[in-house]
Structure formats: C-alpha cells, structure tokens
Amino acid sequence: MEVYKFGGASVKGAEAVKHVAQILAKEHGPKVLVFSAMGKTTNALETLLNAFFRQEANRAELFKALMADHIGIFQALFEPETQRYVLVQRLLKEKFEQLYQRLLEAAVLPYDQAYDSIVSYGERLSTLLIVNYLQEKGLPVEALDAADLIRTDSRYRDAGVLWEPTIRQIRASVLPLLERGTWVVTQGFIGGDGQGRTTTLGREGSDYSAAILAHSIDACQVTIWKDVPGVLNADPKYFANTCKLAHISYNDATELAYFGASVIHPKTIKPLQNKHIPLYVRSFVQPDEPGTWVGLDNVAYAAVPSYIFKPNQILLSVYPKDFSFIEEIGLAHIFELLARHGLKVNMMQNSALSFSLCLDATKGSFPDLLSALSSDFDCVYNEGVDLVTIRHYTPEVIGQVVNGRTVLLEQRTRHTVQLVVENRRISQ
Ligand code: ASP
Ligand code: MG
C-alpha cells in the first residue's frame, strides 16, 4: 500500500490533471491519492472569505472568478453532454451554491472557524473534478472525504490530529476499499472535528495529510509529486549551483523543513519516522527521473551542505534599562510581547545583559513590539538583514556564504550554523 500526494501545482489546470492521470495509468498496486486545491485556489479562497467578511464591493466578482476557473477546467476535462459531464456539472453547481451559502454565513462565525469552512472548498472542488476524471479514464478510484477520516481538535487553521480515532476511522474506511482493489482519493489539508465542522491542518498541510494516512494504514511508502526534481540543497531562487539530494535522513528532512525549506511541510516526517515509512519526493514534470528518498533504511547519508536563505529579517537586541540580568526580567515577558504583536522568531541568543532575536519583517507589527518593549528595554536593531541556515556546514561553505559581508550574529551546533548577515546577494 502506497500513498501519493499531488500538490496544487500538479493539478493547476486541465492539462495538469490529464498528466496526473497518465502518470497514474502506469501504476499498479493499492494506493491512496491525496490532492491539494488546484493551483492558487487556496489563496483565492482566502481573498474571497476576507471580501465577504468585510463586505467588500468586489466579493461577487471574486466568487464568479473562482467559479469560472473551475468551470473552465471542468469543460476542458469532460466530453460535453455525456453522462459524466451532466453529473459533474450538477455536482459542481451544488458545491458552488453550498460555498456561496457558507460565505454568507461566514461573517457571523469566529474568523478562524469561517476560514476552515471556506478555504477547505479548494480541496473539495479539486477532488470532485479529479476523481470523476480518473473514473472516466477507467482508473479504479473512489473518493472519501478527509473530514470523515482525519479527526482533529477544534483549533481552526492549525488543527491538532486526534490520533486514536483518526487511525481507527482511516483503517475502517480505507482498508476495505484497498483490499478490493479500489484506490482511494481524498483531500489533503482537511480534517473534521467529529461534530460536522471542517478543520484545516495549516497552510501547505497536504503533505502532513499524506503522512497521517500512511501512518494509519502502515503504508510501505509515501510519494510527494512536485514541480521540482526532488529535495534540493538550496533554493535556486537564491543560490547558484544547487544540487538534488539523492538520500536524506528523517532528521535532515525535519531540520530543513523546520528552518524554512519549503519543500516538505514540517509536520510530515514524524508520523512516517515513527513507522519507518520512507518518503519519496519526485518530479511530476520528469516522472522518469529519480527524486529524493527520505528515511530509506540501509543507505549511507552523505552530509551534503544544505542552505536555507531567509531575506528581509530584522535583528533586534534588547538591553534591560536598569542593568538587570536578562533572566531576572524573564524571557517569558519578551515572548509574550512577541506573540501579542504577531512576530515570529527565527533565531535567538542571550548574554547576561542582552537578548538578540532574528525576526521576520513580513509578519506582525515590529513598531508596536518596539514601543511595547521600550518601557523596560533599550532596543537596537538592524533591518533588511539575511538569515542563512547551513546544515552540514564546513568552513569553506561558510566563507562562500558570508562572502566578505559582516556577520551580525552567529550560532553553531554540531550540524547546523545560523548566520545573520548584512544584506547583499549571495553568489557562490
Ligand atoms: N491547499 C492548501 C494550501 O495551499 C494545502 C496544500 O496545498 O498543501 O495551503
Ligand atoms: Mg497548495
């Protein structure tokens, strides 16, 4: 039993869906297929929800645009006036009517609950179109709703999985289908709180869904199909001379995801590692090319240096005004202010009299944080700095990354170094 996960880019339009069907037509053996929303649908749904929430004038137009996108894909996938065409047309119409109704109701719900009820339509729409297309192409697939499979708490937008009922439910619904040769199609990203409310697992959470399903059915492997050849040692947007990693350990994959490499959702690895299920990241653009194996047994992992680059950071140092030690003031107070103003810490370091933090300038309100800190602390900061994390560093690669720039803060563990450096493009 295997689990395949196809992300938004792999199903971004009719041609992409046809390509996925071609890939699947060559496959054998029982499978669970997890799909994300098509292309940028999740972003579009976020915008749509906000427009309804704030009663913006363009809300009807946004709704029509989303519907037109999906109708366009529908028309390109199905032969007009066939039985299937009529069926999918009706189902699609019903889904959009339901979505519209939910949008009208959303404004009276708490925002996060409304968010999950609306944004989950991306995956519901994609699986509706895809399962019907795959059936039409003769593939033995059946859809199950992920809200019935993955049981979560009610922490909307970042729901926690309730493992025991989830495993029970998945095994009871999925295994009988797989045993009689039916492949299961379900949505990534979505869960249910057991009281009829949809939850979501956090943006880009479909990888995690695939891992939950694999863990629950004791799958032999999970494959994530991507628009890149596998896990690269750096983001080609920022680094020249990237290379694909053939094998990486669960530890490396988790650390890379944690430090911000966007290739795998950070929560994905644990459910797989706990059951020794390997993960294969491969390209749907070049399906014949080898990808990256994560957590495969009996391989020697090469310690290839990997880089994660975060531009647009702020390096903030705070000093207690009355010369207290940082411990006396309490880091908890500083963290409470960070949480209150929505700032995310990417790196931190303290000395007796100072505490330094590297923060994402794009999140939260830094000016509000500064004014909240100013009663107890003197604050010094540099804006527009870069944070570079290097896994499996060597002195040479640090030299290349720093490239003559000033290092403002540095932290090393055995395998990882993090450097806050003055901004200037990195050329290797
Ligand atoms: N569609 C969701 C998102 O874009 C989940 C996912 O793609 O993994 O965040
Ligand atoms: Mg997505």
Verbal overview:
- With 428 residues, the chain is of the alpha/beta class.
- The chain has two domains: 2-219, 3-Layer(aba) Sandwich (Carbamate kinase), CATH 3.40.1160; 306-421, VC0802-like.
- It has 15 helices and 16 strands.
- The protein has helices spanning 14-25, 41-53, 59-77, 83-106, 111-119, 121-136, 146-149, 163-179, 206-217, 250-258, 269-273, 326-329, 331-340, 366-373, 395-402, and strands at 2-6, 31-35, 141-143, 183-187, 190-192, 198-200, 221-226, 247-248, 279-283, 292-294, 306-320, 345-350, 355-360, 377-391, 407-412, 416-421.
- It has an eight-stranded mixed β-sheet, with helices on both faces.
- Strand 15 (407-412) and strand 16 (416-421) form a beta hairpin.
- Helix 3 packs antiparallel against helix 4 (83-106).
- The longest helix is centred in the first third of the chain and has 24 residues, at 83-106.
- The chain is globular, with a radius of gyration of 24 Å.
- The site of magnesium ion has 5 residues, from loops.
Mean pLDDT value: 93
What is the class of the largest domain in the CATH system? Alpha Beta
Instruction: Tell me, briefly, the overall form.
Output: globular
**DSSP, total strands:** 16
Please, what is the oligomeric state?
A: single chain
Query: Segments where pLDDT lies below 50 for 5+ residues?
Result: none
Strand order of the largest sheet: 3-4-2-1-7-9-10-8
Tell me what the CATH architecture of the largest domain is. Answer: 3-Layer(aba) Sandwich
Structural class: alpha/beta
Would you identify the CATH H-level superfamily of the largest domain? Acetylglutamate kinase-like
The portion of residues assigned to helices is: 25-40%
Strand content: 15-25%
Number of domains: 2
Number of helices: 15
